[in-house]
Design brief:
This protein has about 260 residues and is mainly α. It has helices spanning about 1-40, 45-55, 60-75, 80-90, 95-110, 115-130, 135-210, 220-245.
């Protein structure tokens, strides 16, 4: 009897919980439908509000989560859309839901020009639905755009290296020119010093020529001096001879 009562009690509780889940799911689904109506009318703020309420009532409502991502995507809130599609992928119950979420996630990455993640997203979408031509086209396009982007980066790196080499050569030439100018200046200074020395020597020679030669008498001056000395000697000799003839001594007067 006790066991029977326990079983009945367990059934009633389970039924109550199950009914509550059905009611919450129904409420969440109704909010999702209301959100879809607003989405079609392009009332994105109202649609977002309904989808958020639907998720708050039933966190596993993947349709509301996926449609909320679509609302963000349509409103060009790309980062919010990426986050919401990733949330929808985690909640997905089947391959169809995974395919749609991965496909739309790839579209957002394409808009962001993130071709690597776009290619990976479309690839995952194809794994869940290989027959979707649109997804296959987007995958090929993302792959091609990624190749072009990588090629441009390589070319830009090569161009940058070339520019760097050119700049290095220009710098080397500038340095060489500077060194040449320095050498020229040094040579000019040396030449100036040499010229100054030469000029100094010339000036010394000129000065030496201009200065009178001391302690040297010209032949003409010497002759005139000799003549003068001879005349003086003759005069003295004549006076002596005259004094000898008269016989009177010469007296010197001294003052006291």
């Amino acid at each position: 009897m006790k066991k029977t009562c326990k079983i009945i009690f367990f059934i009633l509780i389970s039924a109550k919980i199950f009914s509550q889940e059905i009611l919450s799911n129904k409420k969440s689904n109704n909010m999702t439908l209301d959100g879809n109506v607003e989405f079609v009318e392009n009332n994105l703020i109202e649609a977002e509000a309904y989808y958020r309420k639907a998720i708050s009532v039933d966190s596993l409502n993947n349709i509301a989560s996926y449609n909320l991502g679509n609302s963000f995507y349509k409103g060009k809130l790309n980062q919010e859309a990426v986050n919401q599609y990733k949330s929808s992928i985690k909640k997905a119950n089947n391959k169809q839901e995974l395919h749609k979420a991965f496909h739309n996630l790839g579209d957002v990455y394409m808009q962001n020009k993130d071709y690597q993640n776009a290619m990976n997203s479309f690839k995952n979408a194809l794994l869940n639905n290989p027959g979707d031509d649109e997804t296959r086209y987007n995958y090929v396009l993302a792959k091609e755009l990624l190749k072009n982007e990588q090629k441009k980066k390589k070319d830009n790196k090569k161009d940058d290296k070339k520019d760097d080499k050119k700049d290095d050569k220009k710098d080397d030439k500038k340095d060489d020119k500077k060194d040449d100018k320095k050498d020229d200046k040094k040579d000019d200074k040396k030449d100036d010093k040499k010229d100054d020395k030469k000029d100094d020597k010339k000036d010394d020679k000129k000065n030496k020529k201009k200065k009178p030669q001391q302690n040297k008498i010209s032949p003409e001056q010497l002759k005139s001096l000799l003549k003068a000395m001879d005349n003086e000697e003759k005069k003295v000799q004549d006076k002596v001879n005259k004094s000898k003839i008269k016989g009177t001594p010469l007296k010197n007067k001294k003052d006291w």
